[in-house]
Amino acid sequence: MSRDKVFNYAAGPSVLPESVLRKAQSELLDYHGSGMSVMEMSHRSKLFQGIFDEAKARLKELIAVPDSHEILLLQGGATTQFAAIPINLLEGGAADYAVTGHFSNRAAEEAKKYGTVRLSCDTSDTNHDRIPTQSELKLSADAKYFYYCANNTTAGTEWHYVPKTAAPLVCDMSSDILSCPVDVSRYGLIYAGAQKNMAPAGLTVVILDKSLIGREPEWTPTMLSYQTMVKHDSMLNTPPCWNIYLFSLVLAWVQEQGGIPAMEQLRAERAGMVYEVLDNSSFYKPHARRDSRSFMNVTFHTPTKELDAAFIAEAAARGMLNVKGYKTQGGLRVSLYNAMPVEGAVAIRDFMKEFEVAHHV
Ligand SMILES: *Cc1c(COP(=O)(O)O)cnc(C)c1O
What per-residue string of b and e applies to 112-150 under the rule 16 or more CB within 10 Å gives b? Predict the structure, then answer.
């Protein structure tokens, strides 16, 4: 099956803008007349430093990162931050964790190794089908930070407000960063694994309030120390050069499309098409409650497991790939990140309608 016949709804790693891949292809063997690929050049070279600085500058401009915050380009995936955050910020104390899905649960479990974790909320009783309201959040007076995950990639729910807390906000934005505006100044720390909406797997972006730097204990592994990484501008060791280059190309692409406002409009348009089918169907059952729906990952079931499997197989036969739900979640999941063209939402919407007519009893 060729690329032009396929829509890839994978949750991550996920689709990248085709024009970005083509640009990378055209520069693959010889970057800007250097005779080298970005994969082959020293990370200490002027040429790579230019790529690195440009990537940071583009991110800073695109989401208006204030001078009060540092941008780090790290490795180890979002999962490494589950440990790095409590190590750097807990100071042996306590933090509030909002558990609204698979990844925030894992982050809370990891943080318990380094201090006291207080569950601000836990939606596991209804299989993470919703985001709690502000008044439901339990906030402790001595919390070093409040942790939440903006978009729950596996459950298909998303926070549609920024929690109000006295403690600094720490947020996992892995699966909705760059899809809607964010007031960075309100956050102590924002982080995101790149492979959902920004770049290939292997790069993790951390945006950190400078006032939180330097609180980690002496035993902190060097690679996990924010202070050390800030001091070395993320280049204590070899950074993921190729990923940073592609990240920069994706940022330029977002800018060309009209920036974050354009991404926000497009995500509403794409997800709206799929939710409209769910809302007008007695066949499909959406997983997320209406007020908590994700714009990036739409999760739902057909009436039976057999029909779920048939849906996945028939969709794949038509070039609509990777619509299987997360392993612990089951059912179906259609991920509609920034790089998904609107035609991809149209295609899955039309297929869903057709499948319902063919299989409704
Ligand atoms: C994918 C994902 C993660 C895990 O990312 P890795 O880079 O695989 O560690 C964490 N949080 C969220 C919200 C995710 O979507």
Answer: eebbbbeebbbbeeeebbbbbeeeebeebeebbbbbbbb
